[in-house]
Amino acid sequence: MSANSDSYVIGVDFGTLSGRAVVVRVSDGAELGTAVHEYTHRVIEDRLPGTDVRLAPDWALQSPHDWLDVLRTAVPEAVAAAGIDPARVIGLGTDFTACTVLPARADGTPLCEETPERPHAWPKLWKHHAAQAHADRINALAAERGETWLPRYGGKISSEWQFAKALQVLEEDPEVYARTDRWIEAADWIVWQLTGVETRNVCTAGYKGIFQDGGYPSAGFLTALNPGFAGFTAKLGQELSPLGGLAGRLTAQAAGWTGLPEGIAIAVGNVDAHVTSAAADAVRPGQMVAIMGTSTCHVMPSDQLAEVPGMCGVVRDGIVPGLWGYEAGQSGVGDIFAWFVDNGVPASYTRAAEERGLSVHAYLTELAAAQRVGEHGLVALDWHNGNRSVLVDHNLSGVIVGQTLSTRPEDVYRALIEATAFGARMIVETFEKAGVPVEEFVAAGGLLKNRFLMQIYADVLRRPLSVIGSDQGPALGSAIHAAVAAGAYADIQQAAAAMGTRRDDAYLPDEARADAYDRLYAEYRTLHDYFGDGRMLHTLRAIRNEANG
Ligand SMILES: Nc1ncnc2c1ncn2[C@@H]1O[C@H](COP(=O)(O)OP(=O)(O)O)[C@@H](O)[C@H]1O
Ligand SMILES: O=C(CO)[C@H](O)[C@H](O)COP(=O)(O)O
Fold first, then answer.
1. SS (H, E, C) 294-338
2. 354 alpha carbon to ligand 2 midpoint, in Å?
3. Which terminus of the chain has a smaller tally of CB atoms within 10 A, N or C?
4. Residue of the CA atom closest to atom 9 of ligand 2
5. Tens of pLDDT along the chain (549 residues)?
């Protein structure tokens, strides 16, 4: 690859609160410069920008202007930080949160530009959860009709996805629905802005748009949901583009925004979690990448097609062309630790952490690390934000068993970390039981900084952990896709091998601790089965909801 030794690609990761650009050398994946742009409107949850229009609970919107600002600011700043000649940039790739989806005109104009006072005209962020009732109806009808696509999503689709959100628009603001020519993932919309051509990537279409075996849910199914929904799929993409493919070339206008040469390759859009596999060079069957942060997403290519209970989805070519791509998830991980730090720690601990110059997380970790496995006498269920896999039930809640008058904050903190590791083991075992082998567990994301936590995962999973070598996995992954789109490598696997970064066996399980964890895990499973049917936890939630009026 010496011909590429002085050419560069740019990866742009559009997150929940900000967008990040990274400049990467094509020959070896070296990250030379990066810049972040915080979105001006962040997550729109209370009031529509520039209006008095208030939003209902569970709404979460975003502004397309914030995304374009990332191209205008973070990209040129990253190039400047890298100190490279922009003329040497040969391609740009992007990834987005998903399902973040917007209604647009036939020319790509977001409807919120025409009618900013209409909530449904705005892009719905992935965590917009106000379409749960619509998702419930889709699931019930699909189960009743035996729709063949339903098992591809572990038996349930999410309220976060395209069909649930679009049905909400139709039923709550039919006029906006009627004006929607294109219902498009932000992942594809941003690529449209860069290239001037509309493309639809297989990843979001498959995981978020129920595209399976060459088609969307049938018109008959959609009519049964609501006759007005019959023609919905005409607003989606009909021809899908492969990951790593060339979506188009940078337009003169977008060259003006970014300061990059007009005509460079723009990669087909992608999802932040899935593109991280390339960054970790984990794009072969059985390499499960866990992107561990506030929540954890698990993605894994495989040559086996199976119906794994409670997975988020399995999509042909969904991570790399030629393989099935699986996704599963834990809806609360770092968020649970944050909840405990914010609510479960006395002032004396906060003071002690401050005196030591440590975060409360780091302080609790240090105390917890001094214990032997099981010493706290606790076992917990990691369902404080519901359970995505394997139970797919957002109405479950957290459980901590075994507390006594001598239970200390570090005990609970450790038990919560262990609970998330047990949740991960449950997912791995569910895949394997369904006939999809997990050969390697590769950790990525913000929680890598907690080495004690990573060791617990190795011990609980009873397997070596590999770790990604970059702390900006999605942006690096997007840059790798850009290199493929630009023709610098033949495919994602080759580009990932040259440019991705992974440390094998970064954490090895300790036999004695793993044995001790087996006993605790058995108790976790018992609790999981007992509370997992929801009888008690749903009742508690109902009582809470009644009490809150
Ligand atoms: N030392 C730590 N140990 C464990 N969890 C931590 C620590 N520091 C921060 N966290 C948790 O990490 C999460 C943030 O992870 P990060 O990957 O940066 O974010 P995101 O998932 O939003 O990209 C927060 O939920 C926070 O509670
Ligand atoms: O569900 C997703 C992928 O399937 C979202 O993209 C993801 O959960 C958003 O993650 P983050 O908050 O880390 O940007």
1. CCEEEEEEECCCCCCCCCCEEEECCCCCCCEEEEEEECCCHHHHH
2. 32
3. C
4. 97
5. 444 458 999 999 999 999 999 999 999 999 999 999 999 999 999 999 999 999 998 899 999 999 999 999 999 999 999 999 999 999 999 999 999 999 999 999 999 999 999 999 999 999 998 998 999 999 999 999 999 999 999 999 999 999 999 999 999 999 999 999 999 999 999 999 999 999 999 999 999 999 999 999 999 999 999 999 999 999 999 999 999 999 999 999 999 999 999 999 999 999 999 999 999 999 999 999 999 999 999 999 999 999 999 999 999 999 999 999 999 999 899 999 999 999 999 999 999 999 999 999 999 999 999 999 999 999 999 999 899 999 988 889 999 999 999 999 999 999 999 999 999 999 999 999 999 999 999 999 999 999 999 999 999 999 999 999 999 999 999 999 999 999 999 999 999 999 999 999 999 999 999 999 999 999 999 999 999 999 999 999 999 989 987
Amino acid at 36: V
- The whole-angstrom separation of Cα 151 and Cα 145 is 12
Please report the ipTM that was assigned to this predicted complex: 0.94
Is residue 272 lining ligand 2, measured as CB closer than 6 Å?
A: yes
Domains of the chain, with CATH numbers? 2-127+176-209+239-267 (3.30.420.40), 281-468+510-549 (3.30.420.40)
Strand, coil or helix: what is 8?
A: strand
Q: Is 334 in the pocket of ligand 1 (CB under 6 A)?
A: yes
Which atom of ligand 2 is nearest the CA belonging to 273?
3
